[in-house]
Please model this.
Amino acid sequence: MTQDIVIAGSGFAGMWAAISAARAIALADREADVRVTIVSPSPNLAIRPRLYEANLDDMNPDIAPLLAAVGVRHVAGVIESIDAEWRRLIVAGTDGVRTVMSYDKFVLAAGSQLFQPPIPGLADHAFNVDQFAEARRLGAHLESLADRRDTTARNTVVIAGGGFTGIETAAEMPERLRAILGDQAAIRVVVVEQAPHIGPDLGANPRPVIEEALAECGVEIITGAAVTAIDADSVTLSSGERIATSTVIWTAGARANPLAAQLAGEKDRFGRVAGDAYLRAPDGDIFVTGDVVRAATDDAGNVAAMSCQHAMSLGRVAGHNAAAELVGLPLHPYSQPRYVTCLDIGPWGALFTEGWDREVRLTRETGKAVKREINTRWIYPPAADRDAAFAIAAPDHVIVAA
Ligand SMILES: Cc1cc2nc3c(=O)[nH]c(=O)nc-3n(C[C@H](O)[C@H](O)[C@H](O)COP(=O)(O)OP(=O)(O)OC[C@H]3O[C@@H](n4cnc5c(N)ncnc54)[C@H](O)[C@@H]3O)c2cc1C
Model:
């Protein structure tokens, strides 16, 4: 009888989980009776780490040929509910039909969503760069500014949130606005961060570099103030300040996909499920990976970030282990002791750091060369070639940057 591994999501974690599971099944010579299926809205990999960029071409590559090459089936739809006891999923197909899908092993790789607290006007007036469709909506809005009257609100962009995404989005914005509004427009780009410092989660080491780089890009920083209301022409801060703007970009962090809440066990403050050393969820026969899992990266107490860097390794491990349990291969514990960050800071360049204390290693153009390599090569899907994909899908495969 055929056994089924079902994977929710075709993002970084889901795609690599599928390839890694297919590899393990092939190693055990069980391709005839173990099947891998991805369920996601479409067989595309959204390159979320680049959605702050102006040009969105090639940010949503088609992975159907790759999945076909490694023998993975794709079902177009979203998983609505998980029945762990009966090992069944309710799938809403993109054709509008609801079906029940059974599994022997389930891998939850449904990623994360933008955190949007109930701030007045946020849902109606703010833009974001969290998903492909939202990044396109922002791009279309920015283009449309050229048809508006030359006002302070038109010329001002406020980025709410001064974390990783906020910094990357802001640094690109002066050039982006100039390309649309012309060199003579009195453009203003402001990052508003409620913590006392820019990049609060990035720590103290890179901060002076970030501050200098943003200043050089022409970006203002307001710290210690939260956005409290947004309307079509302005944003209001907790300090009482009101900034005239037609464009507020909300970047205040991510939360795990709500499907995670359907699984047993404690969730962390991001809504992630605690995975064991093999990325198993507390419910039997379910693995959690990518942005929906809280997993230790090493013995020093560090935990995977909601990042593409971690999602690609977490995916490989979860996919391998889901298949390994079915075909009798050894399970592989997750570990990812090396951690780097590479922050794009617009025309200034990029900031490359190493370790959880984020020691600055490369800046400006040398950092940018690494960022280009990561953003145009490392995070993209492999070619639709079974052997080539399997060669980099082992659960201990290490992705090396710089
Ligand atoms: C603007 C931005 C910049 C970033 N920059 C960086 C960076 O520089 N470096 C870095 O490492 N990380 C970065 N990240 C984070 C990174 O993109 C995420 O951590 C990564 O995408 C997580 O991978 P994932 O596979 O877990 O989830 P995702 O990539 O979000 O994929 C989730 C998949 O699940 C599917 N899905 C969702 N709901 C369902 C459902 N109910 N049923 C079935 N399928 C479902 C989605 O369609 C998608 O295919 C950035 C993110 C953003 C938004």
